[in-house]
Design a protein that fits this description.
The protein has helices at about 5-35, 40-60, 60-75, 80-95, 95-120, 125-140, 150-155, 165-185, 200-215, 250-270, 285-300, 305-315, 325-335, 350-365, 375-385, 410-430, 435-440, 445-455, 465-470, 480-490, and strands at about 220-225, 230-235, 240-245. The protein is mainly α and about 500 residues long. Helix 1 crosses helix 3, helix 9 (about 200-215) runs antiparallel to helix 12 (about 305-315) and helix 14 packs across helix 16. It has a three-stranded mixed β-sheet with strand order 1-3-2, with helices on both faces. Helices cover about 60% and strands about 5% of the residues. The protein has 20 helices and three strands. Bound molecules: zinc ion. Zinc ion (ZN) binds near residues 259, 263 and 292.
Length: about 500
């Protein structure tokens, strides 16, 4: 048969195979982080590289291009599938195989160098690895000579079709809105209710499981495990894996679990008809992050959530919270205090950590910042935005692993996701006016349904711009998020803790 349907059917079969290989690679990665004994690292690196190579070869094979051309010419069906496949294929074919291999290798050696440099808190031995990553990314950028600005090529890997100019505009407005909020809210610590060494890990696990069950996790389709760097991974329909970490002296396990739950719920809610195709997945890193941040912050730091959750917290840690109220905890989890480390930053200062990284990336790729001068530039901006002195490289330029792995263009998506979460939250509250009361009753159903309908089910069928415009009612705009923070900061006793 040489009908249009057969080209499309054959293409779909090939894409399903590629999708399966991708998930197999993901499973190998999940196992490495969660279960593998450390001795398996070298063998696992080879296994992952083999699967990745197979995946890349199967996808960029000439046959896929032929089938795609035939399918496009012969059928008006599955327009979205064909457009996304075309985009992915064009991008994948631009990068020479040698450069792909070098990028993978440099990411692995960069990671190793970073681990040592971070432990020693010394940027100097790490600098050549960083320089190499920047150089390779410049070669990568050169594969896309048509982009107006070099950084566009980096950003596009995470935010399809977004231009640097737009990211700069949105993040600049976010930064300028956050700085006065931080200055007005920050003060000395007033309440150490969530600090100190009495959060037994078993009790934390019980509390986290209670919360996850209530928001929508079940044993049939979900798993929760422990990992050093928490993440979420979806292996396929009906198999969502979350990870968290437990420290004995804080309750960050709750917030990392809610964060990863947001990522997992997104993937779990994608239309099953898109399974095993390039359309099964989040549409962009920022939209993905909007889902995790929404559950972590808008839900997890809301008064509604704590009116429901506080009795469970008290039951898990009876000594710790005897004589306390939900308001005490609500105040503590919303405390604003500039700090040096991004991953433990509060909701308000977090965006400034991202603005700093984004601006330094722009200076590296479009300005005249040399990698050797990065620590000084980092410390200068930390002083300007957070009012803090960086005591050593581990608390400064070396704190994140992203650049060590050659991940440039990724950081802005954290803050862009936060911006989108603010826009979505405003819409949800308009559509579900009694949301706060529902959360206080532990009723998370209407929120889940709203997100599934407006965001999750589409997978990659819409472009990120289309999805945000439809779900949030307009283009990216930091104002709803800033309004949400302003209302919270104005609404209660000073949020200092
Ligand atoms: Zn995330």
């Amino acid at each position: 048969m040489t009908t249009a349907q057969s080209a499309l059917t054959q293409l779909k079969a090939r894409l399903a195979e590629v999708a399966d290989l991708e998930r197999v690679g993901m499973l190998l990665a999940w196992d490495q982080e969660v279960a593998m004994p450390r001795g398996g690292a070298e063998a696992r690196a080879q296994q992952r590289a083999s699967v990745e190579r197979l995946c890349h070869e199967r996808f960029t094979d000439d046959r896929v291009g032929e089938l795609l051309d035939a399918a496009v010419a012969e059928t008006p069906l599955d327009e979205d599938l064909l457009a996304v496949t075309r985009r992915d294929l064009d991008k994948a074919r631009r990068i020479p195989g040698d450069l792909v291999a070098e990028l993978v290798h440099a990411a692995a050696t960069g990671h190793e160098a970073w681990t040592k440099a971070h432990a020693a808190s010394d940027f100097t031995p790490f600098e050549p690895f960083l320089r190499r990553n920047v150089e390779l990314r410049r070669q990568y950028i050169a594969c896309f000579p048509e982009v107006p600005r070099p950084y566009d090529a980096l950003l596009d890997d995470f935010e399809p079709q977004m231009r640097t100019e737009q990211a700069q505009d949105v993040l600049g407005r976010l930064r300028d809105g956050l700085i006065p909020l931080v200055e007005a809210a920050a003060g000395p610590p007033a309440d150490a209710i969530l600090q100190g060494s009495s959060f037994p890990v078993d009790a934390q696990r019980g509390f986290v499981e209670t919360v996850l069950r209530q928001v929508g996790v079940d044993d049939e389709r979900w798993r929760l495990d422990v990992a050093v760097h928490p993440f979420a991974a979806t292996m396929g329909l009906g198999d969502v894996r979350l990870t968290t970490r437990y420290a004995p002296d804080d309750l960050d396990s709750l917030y990392s679990s809610l964060h990863e739950f947001g990522h997992g719920l997104y993937e779990a809610g994608i239309d099953p008809a898109l399974a095993r195709s390039p359309l099964q997945g989040g549409v962009s890193s920022a939209v993905h992050e909007s889902q995790s941040r929404l559950w972590e912050n808008m839900v997890g730091r809301s008064s509604g959530f704590w009116r429901w959750g506080f009795p469970h917290l008290q039951a898990a840690f009876p000594d710790r919270f005897a004589g306390r109220t939900w308001q005490d905890v609500h105040r503590a989890v919303n405390a604003v205090r500039p700090s040096l480390i991004r991953v433990t930053a509060d909701e308000v200062t977090y965006g400034l950590h991202i603005a700093l990284r984004f601006e330094l990336e722009l200076a590296l790729f479009e300005g005249d910042l040399d990698p050797a001068d990065l620590p000084e530039a980092w410390n200068e901006r930390t002083r300007a935005y957070l009012g803090l002195e960086v005591p050593d490289d581990a608390h400064g330029v070396l704190q994140d692993v992203h650049w060590a792995e050659g991940l440039f263009g990724y950081f802005p998506t954290y803050a862009l996701g936060t911006v989108i979460s603010g826009q979505l939250w405003a819409r949800i509250n308009a559509d579900v006016p009694d949301l706060e009361e529902r959360l206080a009753r532990g009723d998370f159903g209407p929120l889940r349904e709203w997100l599934a309908e407006r965001v999750h089910r589409h997978g990659r069928r819409l472009t990120p711009t289309e999805l945000v415009a439809r779900a949030a009612g307009g283009p990216l705009d930091p104002e709803p998020y800033l309004d949400y923070l302003r209302a919270k900061l104005a609404g209660s006793a000073p949020l200092v803790g």
